[in-house]
Amino acid sequence: MSVKRRGYCVNGEWKTSATDIYTKVTDSSTGEIIAEVPRCTKEEVDEAIASAEAAFPAWSALSLSRRAQMMFRWRDVLVDHLDELTLLCAKEHGKNLNESRGDILKAIEPTELACSLPYAIQGSNAVQVTTGFDCSTFRQPLGVVAGIVPFNFPAMIPWGWMVPLAIACGNTVILKAATPTPLTSMRILELFYEEAHFPKGVVNLVTCTHNEADILLTDERIKAVTFVGTTGVGKQVTATAAAHGKRVQAQCEAKNHALVLADCDLEATTNAVINSAFGCAGERCMALPVCCVEESIADEFVAMLKQKAEAMVIGRAYDSETKLGPLVSAEHKARVEGWIAKGVEEGAQLVLDGRGCVIEDSEGGFYLGPTIFDHVEPGMTVGDREIFGPVVCIKRVHGYEEGIKIMNANPFANGSSIFTQDGYWARRFKLETDGGMVGVNVGIPVPTAYYPFSGNKQSFFGDQHVLGLDGYCFYTRAKTVTEHWFDEKSSTKKLDSWEGTVERA
User: Given this model, what pLDDT does residue 2 score?
Assistant: First the structure.
C-alpha cells in the first residue's frame, strides 16, 4: 500500500515541498506508516511568513463583530467534524477515543472563548482624569504570530491554545506542526478554509525541524511566538525570540505532585490518580506522576492504586473498550522504558512494571502498561524529572509540612493537587504550593479556557499565559490615548512640562 505524502499550506493552498527528506507518521496502535510529511526548507518557512504578512492588513481591518461571527461559524464546523477528528487523533497519537474526543473538545472550548471577542477585548475610558483631560485604552493586533507545536495534543494546542485568540484578535498565524502527529492539525486546517471559508493566508502550516523553524524566532515580521515543549528548548526559544524583540509564551516540562493526606477519600483519590497519571498514557504536562502520600495510609493507597491500574484495559486507541492506549512512537516508548530502568537502578521499589506489554493482532504498536514506583526518595531522578509516560512515583511523607516541602523543592510547578477532607489543609495548600494550577480533590487541575493555563517556575517562561484574558492580552498591544480639547481659555493658559498630570490640592 502506498503511503500518502503530505505537503505544507501557504495562502490557503497545499503545496509540494522541494525537500527530499520526509518524516514517517505512524498509527501508534499498530506501528503502520500512514503518511509522510516534509522537512520543509527555510525558503518554504519564509514563504509561509510572507503569506501571513500579506493576509494581515485585510484580516486585521475586519470589524470585531465580523471576526466574531466567523469564529462562531468555525466553532460549528469543528463540532460537525468531532467524530472524524476524534478518530484521526486516536490513530496518529494513541490516545483512546474518549481522550482523543477531549483533545478536539479542548480546541473547541477556546474557539468559543474567541467568540466573545467584542466584549473581552474592550479597553477602558475615563473623562476628566485631570481638568480638561480624558484618557482611554484600546487594544490592537500584533501582526504575524507563530506557534511551535508539540506532539502530545494534535488539536488542543495548535487549534485551541494558538489559533483562536490569535486570529480573533486580528493576527495571522504560522503553525509549525509536530512531525509525529501532524495529521489532525492538517485536517483541521483543510476544514478552516474549505468549510469555514476564512480568507487565504490567515493560518499557514509547515512541518520541519528546529533548524528550519529558527527563522520564526529571528525574523522581524514575526511579532510573537507561542511554544510548547521541553524546558531546555523553551529556554532557548524564549532567549532567542526575546532578543529579537518578540513576545514569548513558553509552556514547558512538568513534574506535577499531589499531596495525599490521611483523611482523604481513598477510593475517590485513587480513581483521580489513575485518571490523571495514566490518562493519555501520561503524555501530557498536566499528568500526575508523583504522589506524596501520608505514611499512615501509604500501604493501603499503593495496594488500591495497583489493583485499579492492573484492571485497566490496554489496547488500540480506537477500540471502544480501551482505557490505556499506546505511546506515540517506538522512540518515545524506548525513552520511557529507559526511565523505568533508571528508577530500578536508583533503588525505587517497582510495584507494577508496564514493560513487555503486547497486544494481540497489534504487536507492532507502541504499548506500555501502567507502572508504579513506591518508596521514591529525594535525589532519585525518576521522581524529579518529567518521564512523559504512564509511570507514577510514590513519595512517602509524615504529614502536610514534609509533603509541601518536597513538592515545592521540585524545579517544575505546572500544577499541583491536594487530596483531603479538611478545609484548613486545603486552604494552606492553595496559598503555599508553587504549582500554578492548583487542584483540591482534583487530579487534573486544568482550568477551562476562560482562565489562563498558568504554570510557574521551570514550567513556564513569559509574562502572559495562554487562554483566558491573558491570551487576549498576549495577542494584542495596548494603546493609551490622552485627549485635551482647546477652549476659549486655552490660548492664555500657562503650560509646563507636566501638562495633564494629576492635580494636587
Answer: 66
Residue of 196, 191, 184, 248 lying closest to 217 (CA atoms): 248
Q: Name every residue whose Cβ is closer than 8 Å to that of residue 505 and which is 6 or more positions away in sequence.
A: none
Q: What is 257-440's CATH superfamily?
A: Aldehyde Dehydrogenase; Chain A, domain 2 (3.40.309.10)
Answer for the pair 501, 162: CB distance below 8 angstroms, yes or no.
Answer: no
264 is catalytic: no
Distance of CA 98 to the CA centre of its chain: 18
The domain limits of the chain are: 4-252+459-480, 257-440
Catalytic residue among 89, 208, 280, 285: 285
What is the four-CA torsion angle of 381, 401, 282, 468, rounded to 10 degrees?
Answer: -120
Phi, psi (5° rounding) for residue 143? 140, -125
Cα separation values, 6 from 23, 27, 206, 270, Å: 10, 16, 10, 43
Read off the pLDDT of each residue in 21-34 and give the average, rounded to a whole number: 97
Summarised one tens digit per residue, pLDDT across range 201-226 is: 999 999 999 999 999 999 999 999 99
- Which tens digits make up the pLDDT trace of 144-161? 999 999 999 999 999 999
pLDDT of residue 501: 79
CA dist list (Å): 111 to 241, 379, 439, 475: 26, 42, 25, 15
Ramachandran region, residue 86 (left: φ > 0; alpha: ψ -120 to 50; beta: rest): alpha
Mean pLDDT for 103-119 is 97
Single-letter amino acid, residue 177: A
Annotate 41-64 with b (16+ C-beta within 10 A) or e (fewer): beebbbbbbbbbbbbbeebbeeeb
pLDDT of residue 278: 98
Which class does domain 4-252+459-480 fall in?
alpha beta
